[in-house]
Protein 1
Amino acid sequence: MQSNTNQTIEITRERYDHFNPENLKFKSEVGVSEELVRQISLDKKEPEWMLNKRLLGLKTFLEKPLPNWGPSLEDLNLEQIHFYMRPDANKNSRTWDDVPKDIRETYEKLGIPKAEREALAGVGAQYESEIIYHNLKKEWEDKGVVFLDMDEAVHKFPELVQKYFMTSCVPINLHKFTALHAAVWSGGTFIYVPKNVKVEIPLQAYFRMNAKKGGQFEHTLIIADENSQVHYIEGCSSPIYNEIGLHAGCVEIHVLKNARVRYTSIENWSKNTYNLNTKRARVSSDGIIEWLNGNLGSKVTMLYPCSMLIGEGARSDYIGIAYAGQGQYQDTGCKVHHLAPNTSSTVISKGISKNGGVSSYRGLIEIKHGCTGVTSSVSCDGLMMDNESRALTFPSMDVKENDVKVSHEASIGKIGEDQLFYLMSRGLSEQEATKMIVSGFIEPVIKHLPLEYAAELNRLIDLEIENSVS
């Protein structure tokens, strides 16, 4: 990411695509089994209730079928994935000097230590299956903010974790990959913000996959107590290999009365990775959840952040960008369940596809009977950069109440040859003209991102265009 200072970190593909030689304490055999699930739990010295959740997840995973809708998963062979890998590094180092040199250099290329010094309240860094660095600035620690590795939280805050972990927000049996996640999850982030505390500087975690045929299954659990506020940012990336990788993380956010959570994510997995992530929030009375998502990596993404508005006056805002290039299918969108009166939601989605890529919006707005006074608006736009690409929309509205205001707008179109011609006649190259048109298309989304992340996402999309425009 770029900084507001004069010094910047140059964003190139090498920043994300480089890889380190494997240096692991433990690497599971491919495939998932009860023996592996028990091994993970034993390694983490987990209480029996967490082991039981894992075993229930494994049982449910084996019983549930693969999704039979959306992008094809036929190339995803789960029997060829390493589900658990422990790097040869200390867990939860508090200084970057304690992180092994090769791993530290990876995060320096990604700009994480620099961002921590200049713009963040705390940082977590996960490498393969474990958090290898975690730190919260003392100012926020003194105010009672908790920002921990999820493995550590199981031991330090067992009552909170047991109450919220994969219960009402993301049930274990939601679908096959939430069940798999419950069985093999490792690492991730735990955040608790006390009542009346507003964390004015973002917290960030960065998740990095390095090994071939790897899987990453971090768990993020955020609890914003009454009248609190927090902005949490996740970034992720992995090197390019010929072998398939899998990311099936899980994000659970609990927004209590009059609290506000902003969740920002830039997912830049390599194009051999299946990104089958689950993100959900429960929002109480007058609470606000804000989703800001950028998706441009992975072979296949299936990701639909979901808001359950359970208290009167609760609000959900979603803004997302997806970019699909050659060999990619980005199936993203948002789901909102209005489960209380006078709740509101907005959804803004932008999809870009090029060189045969597929970008699709898939969303749901549900308004239960009795939930009067609801307002909801959905806007989804798709931009196709050539004749080989596809942009799709799959909106769904399930409205069981009359006293509501619901609107939906969708547009799909090709990049205009007249626009290109006009800009090129003013001296721009085709590549420069294309970048300018795309920048204008995504500007309504980019302007909501923090400056550093807007710069990163803009540059990543520029790089994709540079690699695809002759």
Note: The first strand starts at residue 24 and ends at 27.
Protein 2
Amino acid sequence: MLKSYEAIYDQGHIKWLGEVPKFKRVRVVLVADDANELDEETPNGARLVSILRATPAELRASIAEKFGNPVDWQREQRKDRVLPGREDG
């Protein structure tokens, strides 16, 4: 059975993203996911905005309807919580 290792190939160098293979020498086949090509000049936020702008308005509306307002979700996540060992007592 073949095992997968995720890495980024950058100008002849490989940076392992997860588990590093334990092989001393092994033949590899590179499968490039060029849809996720890393572009250092385009920050991830700008890439996400371009994807969202390309999404049809009807789909964006249905996503917002299904999952709710993202700003409300963020506010809910940021509410103060009781931290362990810091209860008022």
Note: The chain has a mean pLDDT of 76.
Protein 3
Amino acid sequence: MNDFRLPAQTHIGYAHLNTANLARSLSFYADKMGFQQIGHDGDTVTLSADGHTPHILLTEQPTWKPKPRSTGLYHVAIRLPNRESLARVFKRLVSFSYPFGGFSDHLVSEALYLNDPDGNGLELYCDRPRDEWQYVDGQVQMSLGALDVDKLLREADDTPWTAIDPATDIGHVHLHIADLQQAKAFYADLLGFELSVDWTGQGVIFVAAGGYHHHIGLNIWGGQQPQPPETLGLRSFSINVPDADTLNQLCERLHAAAVKVEKQVDDSLLVHDPVGNAVMLVNKK
């Protein structure tokens, strides 16, 4: 099984979150951040940066509680296409006095950290050009350096705000899991991502396709307690693969590993990782 690798075009599609108050979440994601509402089905709203691609889905669960320290979502990473667009959305949120939790220069990217109104973790980031990334022994070099946020704010232009940059997408998803080796066996050995950064000593690893710094982060910082039922947080996220053959191979590999696979009406596959995070495997470029 270890010779299988996902195609380089593989990427994260959408993140589906539970919210206790849909109107409050739309005030944040649509009104403040500038995502467009492109669908509304019952208690679920679909949001998009470009007006047609699903990026964030929100399902209202009014009685559910915020996620405690447990497995589940650490953060959803919203990727802006360049530093200028990151600066603009940063300036926009600062204008509302929206609280941020941290700022980092990761060498490969520059990132802002915050929570949405339900406490779901978010990262807003932009990548540096790939030709500036450094590698040692096949692993991309990342760090947790300080980010000059004042300089970033000054780089936001003064044109009137309209919406988030339409080239924005979901760059990666970072999860709390119970065991790093178990998570590596599922996401790398079985699904076919490559181990891009191994910080096992710090309790975190990163996996990616196509030489990216990471499409999925996996850490044990939330402890081994399973996420309780009826908890806000991640409902599911999608991994988009570029062709039907890859999706079929994944289905065969999952069946061979005795992992339960549920086929969806759009021919996508729903599986759960070792701690129960729901993963949609989708044939979509």
Note: The mean pLDDT is 95.
Protein 4
Amino acid sequence: MVTAIVLLSTERDATNRVAEALAGTPGISEVYSVAGRYDLAAIVRVPTNEALAEVVTERIRAVAGITASETLISFRVFSKHDLDSMFSIGAE
């Protein structure tokens, strides 16, 4: 499982619309509205790096209202939850 956090800045009145569009996008498991330098944080969980590239460069970039993004690719997860099994249901 490849996980990335995509930090997004949006046009002033587009944050909710962008969040809703991203939340319905295959490969994006969660979208958070956040305070600070960015407006949204999208959590991408996909099986391969190629799938990650598709989500970030094709699906996210296709959403109107995004003005800037920064993608953080995870190397390792530190969690008390078994995230792989939680997100692998139906992934085959």
Note: The domain at 2-76 is CATH 3.30.70.920 (Alpha-Beta Plaits).
